[in-house]
Amino acid sequence: MKKDYLLLILSVFLMNTVQAQDEAPSVEKNQFKINALLLPGFVYEHGFSAKNTLYSEASLIIGYRQNDFYGESTWYFTPRITEQFRHYYNLEKRAQKGKKTEFNSGNFVALHANYDFESISTNEWFNEHVSSFTIGPVWGIQRTYKRKLNIDLHLGAGVIIDQFETEFTPIANFSLGWVIGK
């Protein structure tokens, strides 16, 4: 009788272990972040398959300009909306090495698009920051550490379009923030 119970417990444990190994790592279904440094803003990342997400960000570009001719300087603030279709390509490899894949910790390639609105601050000695649209492919990494500290870096090349011209431009962003929820 004791032997039967022991066999039953071992078989249940073995089935759970085999089942857990069959489950491939996947991206979070819904993830919210707050970015605190460089480009403060809010991020929502929606996972719609095991490796693909739609990354949506509303942020504020903060900049500083100096005009030597007039001896003036000013800060400017420009709202930005960013969208990325991300494909996380190394989740299985990270999991096999015992590294975290939670909170979409992995490497990705993405189609990046962002729209910069006109500056919400003005100064008569400086040119206005005109609205622009940027699109291009990027490669990036996202990692979430203890206490849900999140870093996100992506680099690429694209095209920027505004009312005056269209030109090639580098695409680069580094953000430091926190995952909220869960």
Describe the structure.
With 182 residues, the chain is mainly beta. Helices cover 15% and strands 54% of the residues. The protein contains 2 helices and 8 strands; from the N terminus they run αββββαββββ. It has an 8-stranded antiparallel β-barrel. Strand 2 (41-47) and strand 3 form a beta hairpin. The protein is elongated, with a radius of gyration of 23 Å.
Compressed to H and E, one letter per element, the order equals HEEEEHEEEE
Q: Termini, distance in Å?
A: 43 Å
Q: Give the rounded overall mean pLDDT.
A: 85
Cα-based radius of gyration, to the nearest Å: 23 Å
Largest sheet: 8 strands, antiparallel, barrel
Q: Tell me the quaternary state.
A: single chain
The strands making up the biggest β-sheet line up spatially as 1-2-3-4-5-6-7-8
Overall outline:
elongated
Low-confidence stretches: 12-21
- Helix content range of the residues, please? 10-25%
User: Beta-sheet strand percentage?
Assistant: over 45%
How many H/I helical runs?
2
Structural class: mainly beta
Number of strands: 8
Which helices and strands appear, and what pairs or packs with what?
Layout: H1 2-22, E1 30-35, E2 41-47, E3 52-67, E4 72-88, H2 91-96, E5 106-116, E6 132-144, E7 149-162, E8 166-180
Antiparallel strand pairs: 1-2, 1-8, 2-3, 3-4, 4-5, 5-6, 6-7, 7-8
